[in-house]
Amino acid sequence: MGLKFKGWRRLILLLVFTLAMYAVINVGIRAYTQLDTPFMVVSSRSMEPTLHVGDLIVVKKVDPETLKVGDIIVFYVPENQQQEPIDFPIVHRIVAIIKNSSGIYFKTKGDNNVVVDYWTIPEDYVVGKVVFAIPKLGMLLSEENKPIVIAVLSILLVISIAYDVYIQSRRSSEDEHDEQT
After folding, report:
1. Residue 162 in domain
2. I need a surface site. Which of 17, 44, 107, 130 has the fewest CB within 10 A?
3. Same domain? 43 vs 111
4. Are residues 61 and 27 in the same domain?
């Protein structure tokens, strides 16, 4: 009975520690980026070779005044400038900045695209600036891969518990053997 309790106690402590670390990291990243959803996954080839499909990007909210030509930004296209419905964020590089009495506007282009985008992005449509990217990690987090990720993590958890129980049982039997001699 004591062996089983120790194994479960360790498992619970590990889970609590893992959840606490997740919360601290999550709160820290959200505070740094000033966004509720700072993580995004690149979904097109328009930014290759800089960013690839499946890369996980971290986006930080910034003052539009600080953006400069060459920065990679995430933005939404205003409805009145859409040739077809675009209801998802775009990740492109700033190629020109227009400042006038009505605000700041950005011209953008995908690194892999031949021409500059036809839209002009007002400052309030900018989500933020890409601060770094983790290659291919976004593929792991995609919806279609969730069952695989959950299965792999579950298997690793079972292996970890089984290993812990095995080590505890060996120690227990060694202790019994030492007491008998």
Report:
1. yes
2. 17
3. yes
4. no
Residues 24 and 55 in one domain: no
How many structural domains comprise the chain? 2
Percentage of residues in the chain having pLDDT higher than 70: 87
Cβ-Cβ contacts under 8 Å for 111 (sequence gap 6 or more): 46, 47, 48, 49, 50, 51, 93
Confidence of residue 1 (pLDDT cuts 50, 70, 90): very low
Question: Which of 36, 43, 46, 71 does the annotation list as catalytic?
Answer: 46
Average pLDDT value for residue range 11-24: 81
Domain-located, residue 55: yes
Q: Give the active site residue among 43, 71, 117, 177.
A: 117
Shared domain for 12 and 44, answered yes or no, is no
The one catalytic residue among 36, 44, 92, 101: 92
What is the number of alpha carbons within 13 Å of residue 94 lying toward its C-beta?
25
Flag whether pLDDT at 128 surpasses 80: yes
pLDDT of 92-106, one tens digit each?
999 999 999 999 999
- Whether residue 162 sits in one domain with residue 91: no
Query: Which residue range is the domain that position 109 belongs to?
Result: 39-136
Please give the Cα distance from 33 to 79 (Å, whole number): 26
Clarify whether 46 is annotated catalytic. Answer: yes
- d(C-alpha 62, C-alpha 132), whole Å: 14
Q: Please say if the pLDDT value at position 4 is more than 90.
A: no
Would you state the pLDDT for residue 22?
80
